[in-house]
């Protein structure tokens, strides 16, 4: 059964069958006009008006056993969600929620067997990317309803929302923004902040998060959250670089670089300790039981990056001595 289509990069056919042509041809409205009417009736917006996350339907579940064609309400939901995706492919908030409505409501079932087939053929999007968007829209909407959170930032906030709840998620994001000051908040900043959090059972109140981040920055466990160093005028910087700290010819810049490197390594060690603690206690066994494929993939990635870290941290002093000799 064919269905009306928006001006979207869809692979679905818009050709009606003969029976539909004979039955509806005299009063059939153009597809764009019908879609505009549906979107307007459900959201109050026309096809040229950007949709907000609040105008999208609430995600709901439809069982896999349901094979009936979409009813009028479902068609309306699909039109609204596809219109949102058409205009907000890069917005994790709007696109993520639209994808969740389509996935959980199985609004793709008239044209595609699976959600993966739908997002691949209609939106040229990999299944994993679609699920990352779905996972990320709630924390992104929580910390920034205007939708200025990108997918990478949302991906770092999603585990915080799942493990600690909405209050801690909002407090963490605001704390990072405050500590960063005029500097742009990045996914790497949020990753460092998330790694600095104690286990949920050790966090008595959400307002403790700000203090936790401040201490982590001061101790070098979250160097990206440390206050920015004051800018030095160009002339003073040149003079500063020209100074030699000792007779060995080590400049102040080299000393500063070394101190920063030590802080980076200390932060890495602290994160490694946290990883060690979090992976223990049957975490891997539980993950493999819940989703064997995904669990095994994550386990292999964990081991792979541990090996890469060990390689980078290897003792190369012997090689250097040999080279010097």
From TrEMBL:
Residues 1-36, 220-250 are annotated as: Disordered. It comes from Streptomyces violaceolatus. This is Uncharacterized protein. Residues 16-25 have a biased composition (Acidic residues). It comes from the Bacteria.
């Amino acid at each position: 059964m064919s269905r009306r289509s928006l001006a979207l990069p869809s692979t679905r056919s818009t050709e009606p069958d003969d029976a539909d042509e004979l039955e509806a041809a005299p009063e059939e409205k153009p597809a764009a006009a019908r879609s505009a009417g549906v979107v307007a009736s459900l959201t109050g917006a026309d096809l040229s008006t950007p949709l907000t996350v609040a105008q999208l339907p609430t995600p709901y579940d439809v069982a896999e056993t349901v094979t009936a064609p979409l009813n009028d309400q479902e068609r309306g939901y699909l039109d609204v969600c596809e219109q949102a995706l058409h205009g907000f492919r890069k917005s994790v908030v709007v696109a993520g929620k639209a994808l969740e409505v389509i996935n959980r409501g199985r609004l793709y079932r008239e044209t595609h067997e699976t959600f993966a087939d739908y997002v691949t053929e209609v939106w040229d999007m990999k299944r994993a990317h679609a699920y990352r968007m779905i996972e990320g829209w709630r924390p992104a909407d929580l910390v920034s309803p205007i939708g200025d959170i990108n997918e990478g930032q949302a991906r770092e906030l999603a585990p915080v929302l799942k493990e600690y709840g909405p209050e801690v998620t909002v407090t963490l994001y605001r704390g990072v923004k405050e500590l960063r000051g005029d500097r742009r908040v990045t996914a790497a900043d949020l990753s460092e902040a998330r790694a600095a959090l104690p286990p949920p059972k050790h966090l008595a109140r959400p307002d403790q998060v700000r203090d936790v981040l401040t201490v982590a920055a001061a101790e070098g466990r979250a160097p990206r959250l440390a206050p920015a160093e004051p800018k030095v005028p160009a002339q003073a910087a040149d003079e500063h670089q020209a100074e030699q700290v000792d007779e060995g010819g080590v400049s102040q810049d080299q000393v500063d670089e070394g101190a920063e490197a030590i802080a980076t390594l200390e932060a890495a060690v602290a994160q490694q300790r946290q990883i060690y603690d979090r992976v223990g206690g049957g975490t891997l066994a539980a993950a493999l039981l819940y989703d064997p494929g995904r669990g095994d993939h994550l386990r292999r990635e964990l081991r792979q990056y541990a090996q890469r870290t060990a390689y980078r941290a290897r003792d190369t002093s012997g090689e250097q001595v040999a080279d010097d000799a």
